[in-house]
From TrEMBL:
<feature type="transmembrane region" description="Helical">
    <location>
        <begin position="85"/>
        <end position="113"/>
    </location>
</feature>
<feature type="transmembrane region" description="Helical">
    <location>
        <begin position="51"/>
        <end position="73"/>
    </location>
</feature>
<dbReference type="Pfam" id="PF00990">
    <property type="entry name" value="GGDEF"/>
</dbReference>
<protein>
    <recommendedName>
        <fullName>diguanylate cyclase</fullName>
        <ecNumber>2.7.7.65</ecNumber>
    </recommendedName>
</protein>
<dbReference type="GO" id="GO:0052621">
    <property type="term" value="F:diguanylate cyclase activity"/>
</dbReference>
<dbReference type="InterPro" id="IPR043128">
    <property type="entry name" value="Rev_trsase/Diguanyl_cyclase"/>
</dbReference>
<dbReference type="InterPro" id="IPR029787">
    <property type="entry name" value="Nucleotide_cyclase"/>
</dbReference>
<dbReference type="InterPro" id="IPR050469">
    <property type="entry name" value="Diguanylate_Cyclase"/>
</dbReference>
<keyword id="KW-1133">Transmembrane helix</keyword>
<keyword id="KW-0808">Transferase</keyword>
<feature type="transmembrane region" description="Helical">
    <location>
        <begin position="156"/>
        <end position="175"/>
    </location>
</feature>
<feature type="transmembrane region" description="Helical">
    <location>
        <begin position="125"/>
        <end position="144"/>
    </location>
</feature>
<feature type="transmembrane region" description="Helical">
    <location>
        <begin position="22"/>
        <end position="44"/>
    </location>
</feature>
<keyword id="KW-0548">Nucleotidyltransferase</keyword>
<keyword id="KW-0812">Transmembrane</keyword>
<dbReference type="InterPro" id="IPR000160">
    <property type="entry name" value="GGDEF_dom"/>
</dbReference>
<feature type="domain" description="GGDEF">
    <location>
        <begin position="227"/>
        <end position="359"/>
    </location>
</feature>
Length: 362
């Protein structure tokens, strides 16, 4: 439990998947399932035409892709699976281009590389792989490449291949950027909605609904381990007069000051919420009634000694607090009812007081 949930960063968000998006491990699995029979088919054709060397190498690539898939199924390590797949297909495409498999027509398979690489890796890796790949093809098609590899590609084929491959890589980059931006936008929107559903807009504290959720979670923990928790129900004293005398903007400033003071005076594990207009609920895990009353008094004193600046005047306010600690098998509703009764006793006793549900006050 934290006092305020901070909004997730872009980097964190980009690691999430939006509904409908194909998970990368699944895509790699499907590509492997498609690639293995295709490789075996071309291996069989190479063998049929008397190219036993090419056939063996294509079978090795099929085996490597299968092993990569099997390792993933056994380990569920998606990073290893992705890196293994990228390595194998990069070497495979290089082999298809350099060795002019299938009379040189297999180099056309290079067009399958950019969309796959952009989808399964980070944008930066996609750009590096594509720029590197295009430079390698340009080198292969250069007089230097001819001297080393002696490939059968005509000049017009080389120029067309380079132009179309470069165009495809650029298009994939633009589309991938657009996909990543819209995904991030969707995730940000979802995070904003989630934040708004759980928090109070004025103070940033949890809202009443989320406080109920946290109370229920803490209650379940209490039922399991028996460690009692306490609640502090607090209300700003005579708040209507602050609004009436100084205006609503000073009233709002007062509500924010109390929230700030609550944060300063609480532990990280405590849950702070705005329960209603000028009411707050603090949930103190693993806290008995004595500690709860001490905490309530510390908060009460801190608020009483923190004036709110309003134009040229300062406004001093106080709060009243009702505390209650869970016991036996009582329900959360009953606990809240006892805290509420204690709060009203604190008001009846003249305000700026802490009352516990057992009847004592300070
Ligand atoms: N400025 C501002 N006022 C609010 C907000 N929410 C509730 N209020 C006002 O808070 C006031 C609550 O006043 P009352 O419930 O009468 O209680 P009180 O004046 O605090 O008196 P006691 O609780 O008996 O000490 C009302 O006037 C509400 O309009 C808010 O978000 N901003």
């Amino acid at each position: 439990m934290t006092q305020i949930i901070s909004r997730p960063s872009d980097t964190k968000l980009s690691q999430f998947r939006v509904k409908g998006e194909i998970p990368v491990p699944l895509l790699i699995g499907r590509l492997t399932l498609a690639a293995v029979p295709i490789l075996l088919f071309f291996a069989w054709r190479s063998l049929d035409r008397g190219f036993a060397g090419s056939a063996t190498i294509l079978i090795i690539f099929a085996a490597l892709l299968s092993v990569n898939g099997i390792i993933y199924l056994a380990s569920h390590n998606s990073t290893l699976q992705r890196r293994g797949f990228i390595t194998v297909i990069t070497v495979l495409f290089t082999y298809l281009a350099v060795n002019a498999v299938e009379d040189g027509s297999a180099i056309i398979w290079l067009f399958a590389y950019p969309p796959i690489i952009f989808y399964i890796s980070e944008a930066r890796v996609g750009v590096i792989a594509c720029v590197g790949g295009l430079a390698a093809v340009a080198l292969l098609f250069s007089p230097l490449g001819d001297m080393v590899f002696d490939t059968p590609y005509s000049t017009s084929f080389r120029l067309t291949m380079l132009a179309v491959l470069g165009f495809e890589m650029f298009t994939c980059f633009v589309l991938d950027q657009s996909r990543r931006r819209s995904k991030l936008g969707l995730l940000k929107l979802a995070a904003e909605f989630e934040y708004a559903a759980k928090h109070d807009a004025l103070t940033g504290l949890y809202n009443r609904r989320e406080a109920h959720e946290q109370l229920e979670t803490e209650y379940q923990r209490y039922m399991r381990n028996g460690r009692a928790f306490s609640v502090l129900l607090m209300d700003i004293d005579l708040f209507k007069s602050v609004n009436d005398n100084y205006g609503h903007h000073v009233g709002d400033e007062t509500i924010m000051m109390v929230a700030r003071t609550l944060r300063e005076q609480s532990r990280k594990v405590d849950t702070l919420s705005r329960w209603g207009g000028e009411e707050y609920l603090v949930l103190l895990p693993e806290t008995d009634i004595t500690e709860a009353v001490q905490t309530a008094n510390r908060i009460r004193q801190a608020i009483a000694s923190t004036p709110v600046r309003a134009e040229k005047r300062t406004v001093n306010i106080t709060i009243s607090v009702g505390t209650a600690t869970i016991h036996g098998a009582e329900s959360v509703d009953r606990l809240l009812q006892r805290a509420d009764e204690a709060l009203y006793r604190a008001k009846d006793m003249g305000r700026n007081k802490v009352c516990d549900s057992e009847g004592s006050f300070s």
